[in-house]
Amino acid sequence: MRIRFIVTFAWFYGWSSLKRGPTYIISYLSLPLSLLFLVYVLSQGRLVSYSILGGLISVIASNSLSSIGDFAFMRLELRLQDLLVATEVGPLDYMAGLMLGNLLFSSPGVLVYLLMGYLIGLIKSFTLPLLMGVLLLVLISTSSLSMVLASRLKHTRHSWGLAGLLSIAFTVIPPMYYPYDVLPRPILYALMLSPPTPGAVILQSYYGLAPGELWPGLVLVGETVAFLLMARYFTRWRE
Amino acid sequence: MSVVETIDLTKVYENGVRALDSLNLRLEGKISCVLGRNGAGKTTLMRILSTQLRPTSGRAYVLGLDVMEKAEEIRRVISSIPQEAKPMGIASPFEHVVMYLTARGVSIREAMERARRSLKEVGLWDFMNTPTDELSGGMKRKVMVAMALSAETEVVFLDEPTTGLDPISRMEVWSAIRSINSKVLLTTHYMEEAEQLCHRIAIIDRGRLKAEGTVEDLLKPLQGKVRVEGVGDIRIGKISISYVEEHRAREMIGKGVTIRPVSLEDVFILSGVQVED
Q: Which of B71, B78, B98 comes nearest A8 by C-beta?
């Protein structure tokens, strides 16, 4: 891994967006915050804890999935990928740079949710390592998936639609904003294909909001490794 | 050792387009040019040489290194700016160059130093920290050129580096290209650019080599001749062209023809390709 490049690329891509395009941050915050508000009103505050945990995962996952558009735009319109292919940088370095950049401009959203979780007494400092670990795995798995899909697209115009569709499928339908145990098991198992689902189940269990289960942890780790390997071997890098 | 060499290099895309057709080419010298119309295969050639694209068959070498077998080694000694490469609007020229140099393994401190130098050289000093979506098209192109030049690699590939630039900007880029120590291979549509800048020129059309040599070599067959527009068998659009001895051309004066001295453009025309613009 080319750490220096990854950090610089995150600065180039993430920091410049953060500095010059603050509307991005608001747009990535808008859906989870709207859903949080909706859940608060509908459940009369009862499901707010779920929404905070779900919102955290959602900000990370939707940001990573939106990078399908960025990957495709940089490859097909800006030819940035071609430029980097002709250097010593590999596809995983590039992905890591973009991922870190995405994390940079999703960090204000993460901080907002952490603060809300802290204020309602849900998130304690000793729970942060596991919370961050889960968010990191969701970030890696969804970014890897985004890169593979984006590298296969022939036209940029398909990328935004695909990103939006996956974002809904991965962050609204799964049990992000409601208890996972209300779902029939077969549906839960089907939703496990999207990494945010095991992430949400782990966090709901860990924070005592739903019955504890260990196997989603294995699913999330397995999916992260699988998507990472896919990114390494199935991304179209040198054409 | 040649800078680049291709042997029967062929590229057929998935849609059946044969972009390169058994191209045999050998270019040496500090600055070499590949001339050709749109669709001649220039960009495909550049992409294969800079290890972005795999050939269908044949061999290609950069500094004697095989593009298929030694791609990693080639990437260490080249920098390449694709034809349609554009800067990311939200980032500044300085951020672009620094990012690119760290991709090349340059330390951040050194990258910042080189970024300032190269941006000054291409005339972007005053816009170093301006988001590139606020720059003109020509300035955006210069950002890409600055990235390639700052890398200080042994070989630099520039695919149509001055397209869209005004004459002054073009001269600034030429000056920057001349000043670097790297060997440069560039593609261009502009005959003047090739004449001014390139030590060796290859003309390709429909994926095949039509002519190759120095400007003098290429102009030799036309020595003592001039171009006469208005009469002749060669037709470009609605213009008829012929090449005749100077004394014969003088006899044609006043007969509704235009007489011009020969240039690289005429080599281009005679090598079987038609000028586009």
A: B98
Phi, psi angle pair for B213, to nearest 5°: 155, -170
In the 8-state DSSP scheme, what is residue B202? E
Token digits of residue A140: 């890696």
Residues 104-143 of chain B whose Cβ lies under 8 A from any Cβ of chain A? 104-105, 107-108, 111, 131
Domain that holds residue B232: 218-270
Residue B277 lies in a domain: no
Q: Are residues B109 and B187 in the same domain?
A: yes
Residue A207 CA to its chain's centroid (Å): 20
What would the pLDDT profile of A144-195 be if each residue is shown by its tens digit?
A: 999 999 998 988 888 888 998 998 899 889 999 899 999 999 999 999 999 9
Helical pair A215-234 and A128-152, crossing angle rounded to 10 deg: 30
Q: Do B84 and A84 touch (CB under 8 A)?
A: no
Please indicate whether, in this complex, the C-beta atoms of A8 and B47 are within 8 angstroms of each other. Answer: no
pTM, entire model: 0.83
Asked if the C-beta of B50 comes within 8 angstroms of chain A's C-beta atoms, the answer is yes
CATH of the domain at B63: 3.40.50.300
Q: How many domains does chain B have?
A: 2
Task: List chain B residues with CB under 8 Å of A238.
Answer: 51-54, 71
pLDDT tens, B47-105? 999 999 999 999 999 999 999 999 999 999 999 988 888 999 999 999 999 999 999 99
Domain boundaries, chain A: 3-234
Chain B positions in Cβ-Cβ contact with residue A77 (cut-off 8 Å): 86
Which of the listed residues B164, B186, B213 is the one where a domain comes to its end?
A: B213
Q: What is the DSSP letter of A127?
A: G
Most B-contacting residue of A13, A78, A81, A83 (CB-CB within 10 A), to test interface: A83
For residue B75, the chain A residue with the least C-alpha distance is: A87
Count, residues in chain A: 239
Q: For residues B253 and B228, is the Cβ–Cβ distance under 8 A?
A: no
